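Researcher: Go.
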Amino acid sequence: MSSKERPTLGGTRIKTRKRNIAAPLDPAAFADAVVQIYLDNAGDLELIAKSIESSDLNFSRYGDTFFEVVFTGGRTQPGTTKPDEGERHPYSIIESEPKRECILPSVIYIQKILRRKPFLIKNLENVMQRFLQSLELFEENGRKKLAIFTALAFSQKLSGLPPENVFQPLLNKDNLVAKGLVLSFITDFFKEYLVDNSLDDLISILKRGKMEDNLLVFFPASKRSAEAFSEHFMNAGLLSLVEYNNKKIFEVKLEEMRSALTTQISEETDISEVIETVKQHAKDAKLPDIEIVRILWDAIMEAVQWSGKNQQQNANAAMHQVKTWAKLLNTFCTSGKLQLELMYKIQVQCYEDAKLMKLFPDIVRSLYDQDVLAEDTILHWFRKGTNPRGRQTFVKSLEAFVTWLDEAEEEE
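Model: Structure:
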């Protein structure tokens, strides 16, 4: 090549940087297209679902807008439930009657859409959260329709809808709670959901929503009491929910009492003080005598300082505990029925806990010597006891003591 010739770029490719050119957002055009599908099919959800499936609309980009059209008939203004500009249709959920038979077809329709386009579940969640956080912007009937839809959505197990993401936003709006709107919504939801589902199913949803342990958070602050809860849901016809809540409250009070007693017994608090603690808890919680006896035994055993795998030390520790706190048991085992319940409690624990399995006759003998268990109670358990757990083994282990009781009675 001569010195005058210049090099050329012939035969080589020049790489150019590609730019990501995003198409401008146009939710209005998308919403109008979906509305037109509704109008063209005169609200027939079967035909609408087929038309949506065959359309080339960008649902991945405008998922929230799609559900606005489904719920309200068209687009809504940002941050509100007010209609935005554009076409609207009269076949929305909000335009339907507040009855399950009128709203259920929309739930089934959405389920079909989600099966084909599962990515839309997040958009459904977004729109539901937004509407539930804006309950005050809906009329009473509108709020009821949302409650019915939500209940049917969970009842139909609408694909992947997470309860915690639907319900928690309700509780983040203090003004909605204070006005009673959250309580009204959740009451309608409970009533509608329990039409087709059991209380256990409802509790499962509440657990997933992390609300099962404190249903009072739905109530305005001035009405957060067990009495207000019972009165409200009894008036709503939800007796099973009232009974469930009462049971939960009872269990909490039992646990509080057990924890307090275990601490006092572990710290070797004076027995008179422990007795007063029991009486106070029993009075406050209105605990039946039989539950008190069960809790006392649990607390006494939970406070034992167990010694690893050393069986003899464990046996000594258990028997020392029984002798030390026999007076506490004696104070509350005031009838043959309560004494028998104590024996059943001891029987079950000795059956379930290998450390205590061989101590059953020793425990019974010790409690007899300290006047906690009467002879008649022990003989009744021996001859007519009804709890089968380990019974055959324990009856055999108690034979010698029962024989001694019989002989002592004959000598008298």
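Model: The longest helix spans residues 239-266.
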